[in-house]
Design brief:
The complex is a heterodimer of chains A (322) and B (286). With 322 residues, chain A is α/β, with parallel strands linked by helices. Chain A is built from nine helices and twelve strands. Chain B has a single domain, classed as MetI-like fold. Classes of the chains: A alpha/beta (322), B mainly alpha (286). Chains A and B meet through α2 and α3 of A and α1, α8 and α9 of B.
Chain lengths: 322, 286
């Protein structure tokens, strides 16, 4: 690894207290995102991807653990310091319809970020900046006075990106930012994100459930299952040779657009267990094709398996074909 | 192009409103009531306060359109002046109750810790019968027009508070509010620009109904003798005064009664129409 990563998560844990009991959404998540790179976070529904994205920005307070941003543990910051930090970290949401206030015009939506951080003293200045941002994300400045409902899903997502860029952040959480869009529009938004990353030197946490999207955009990937990191590391290596049985199953289940390619030989049965009552031992043992007795009571910790790749499985060192 | 959409939106809301014939009729009746109240001095054929023993209890005629009361005062003239009081009470109560209700509802809906105390307070207030609570409040505050408005506002504010709280609970969780928090937007700005701005329509609709309820309540209170002071004509006190003559001079209660019924009914219809017209699903093609 190169110099200090821009974002470092150390043992981030989030437990939601609900009437039905404690929900362990995240347990001991530790990840690093080097400057200028994109980490893809994948996992099934309910694996805690979105919760992790929110914890990184402290939109949800982690129950324990540390989030180091550029060397500062932001979980310890007070309200005022956190507000200053928000200028450096932003989020782009999944749903381009509910993430824009329907009663605000585009220039107000983008201008709000500027007001919050005292950028652009006059309305005129803020408008000019908003116009420049619109152009940067591929929209026309004459669309500043329109309301969100006058745009298509892809255009609205561009507005969401412009809003996130307004404060000139170093880091962006993209929470399933393309999964609500048509495939052709997805490609446009992915390219936009990639261009912006290169141009502005952005670092990103890219949350997705589409594995091919992650492969296209990200340097690193982290696989989340029931709030725990199963495998993390260099994207290309992991896609070529997954180490963890869950990663293998996920990659095998991803559709390949070629009818001649034989279907997956590893298929997972059933659903992800309830985080209200996670299984003891390895959380994946209930669905793991190679689970053994020890998996039911011994919790595997992430082990380095290759340069910059780690996985949490008891049977890593065995040569098991699954 | 872009600016035109906003300019078009205002008249088209009215157009959508009057598409329904009942709403158009309701708005027309309201316009007549409002016009009569505003220009009462010009329209009224007689002086509302002058008594005349010679002219007492005259039936409706060319000179006394709606007849005269037991003191020989022109019922039509008094009806118009009484409309002023009703409208003042209605509008002021609608505005004040909305303001109080919005503050209560936003507080309860947005700040989790304050939700239970605020909601219980609202529940407790709604448990009282409207008129009974208003009577006790007027009794405590003293009988004047301002106190009547204040009392009615306190009575009706919980209705707004409930609507606002429910809407706040929904909007608070929407991604655009989360986006605003991620941007570091102040709580105050989130409350005003993101939450309040997105519930303008239900609040306006609720305010229209409160307008109607409070006119009705004012009439009821005046009828019971706890409204504004007796020398000011109001529809309720006119009915109360005419009660004794119900067998011989039914015009004394017929016309104020009609005035109350028509005003309240048309306000309710207008409120219904407004609710439909402001529904984003129906007005999308504006």
């Amino acid at each position: 690894m190169t110099a200090t990563p821009l974002l470092s998560l150390r043992n981030v844990t989030k437990v939601f207290e609900t009437p039905g009991g404690k929900v362990r959404a995240l347990t001991d998540v530790s990840l690093d995102i080097p400057r200028g790179s994109i980490l893809g976070l994948v996992g099934e529904s309910g694996s805690g991807k979105t919760t992790l994205g929110r914890c990184v920005l402290r939109l949800i307070e982690p129950t324990s653990g540390e989030v180091f941003f550029d060397g500062t543990d932001i979980t310890k910051l007070n309200a005022r310091d956190m507000k200053a930090m928000r200028k450096r970290m932003q989020i782009v949401f999944q749903d381009p319809f509910s993430s824009l206030n329907p009663r605000m015009r585009v220039h107000e939506i983008i201008g709000e970020a500027l007001i919050a951080h005292g950028i652009g003293k006059t309305g005129r200045e803020r408008r000019d900046r908003a116009a420049a941002l619109l152009e940067e994300v591929g929209l026309r400045p004459d669309q500043l006075d329109r309301f969100p409902h006058e745009f298509s899903g892809g255009q609205r997502q561009r507005i969401g990106i412009a809003r996130a860029l307004a404060v000139d952040p170093d880091f962006i959480v993209a929470d399933e930012s393309v999964s609500a869009l048509d495939v052709s529009v997805q490609a446009q938004i992915l390219n936009l994100l990639n261009d912006l990353r290169l141009k502005r030197g952005l670092t990103m946490l890219f949350i997705a459930h589409d594995l091919s999207v992650v492969e296209y955009l990200c340097e690193d990937v982290a696989v989340l299952y029931l709030g725990r990191v199963m495998e993390a590391g260099d994207c290309r290596s992991i896609y070529a040779a997954p180490n963890h049985p869950y990663t293998k199953a996920l990659l095998a289940a991803a559709p390949v657009p070629d009818p001649l390619v034989p279907r997956a030989d590893v298929m997972l049965m059933g659903d992800i267990p309830s985080p209200l009552n996670p299984p003891p031992g390895c959380v994946f043992h209930t669905r793991c094709p190679v689970a053994m007795d020890d998996c039911r009571h011994i919790l595997p910790t992430p082990q380095p398996v290759a340069a910059s790749i780690s996985a949490a499985c008891l049977r890593l060192n065995e040569t098991v074909s699954c | 192009m872009a600016g035109a959409s906003a300019a078009v939106a205002a008249p088209s809301l009215f157009k959508v409103l009057i598409q329904r014939r009942s709403v158009a009729l309701g708005l027309a009746i309201l316009a007549v009531v409002l016009f009569a109240a505003v220009f009462a001095d010009v329209i009224a054929p007689h002086d509302p306060g002058v008594m005349s023993v010679r002219n007492r209890l005259k039936p409706p005629s060319a000179e006394w359109w709606f007849g005269t009361d037991e003191f020989g005062r022109d019922v039509f003239t008094r009806l118009i002046y009484a409309g002023r009081v009703s409208l003042i009470v209605g509008i002021d109560t609608a505005v004040l109750a909305s303001v109080i209700g919005i503050i209560l509802g936003l507080t309860g809906g947005f700040f989790r810790k304050l939700d239970a105390p605020v909601s219980r307070l609202v529940d407790a207030m709604m448990a009282f019968p409207d008129i009974l609570l208003a009577i006790s409040l007027v009794a405590v505050l003293g009988g004047s027009l301002a106190n009547l408005i204040l009392a009615l506002s306190i009575v009706y504010a919980p209705r707004v508070a409930r609507v606002v709280r429910a809407a706040t609970l929904v909007i608070r969780e929407l991604p655009y509010v989360e986006a605003a928090r991620a941007l570091g937007t102040s709580t105050w700005r989130i409350l005003v620009h993101h939450i309040l701005r997105n519930m303008v329509s239900p609040v306006i609709v609720q305010a229209t109904f409160i307008f109607a309820y409070s006119m009705l309540a004012e009439a009821g209170l005046s009828f019971l003798g706890v409204g504004v002071d007796p020398s000011t004509p109001t529809w309720g006190s006119m009915i109360n005064g005419g009660r004794q003559y119900i067998g011989t001079a039914d015009w004394l209660i017929l016309f104020p009664g009609l005035a109350i019924t028509l005003s309240v009914l048309s306000l309710q219809i207008a409120g219904d129409g407004l609710r439909d017209a402001l529904d984003p699903r129906l007005s999308k093609d504006l």
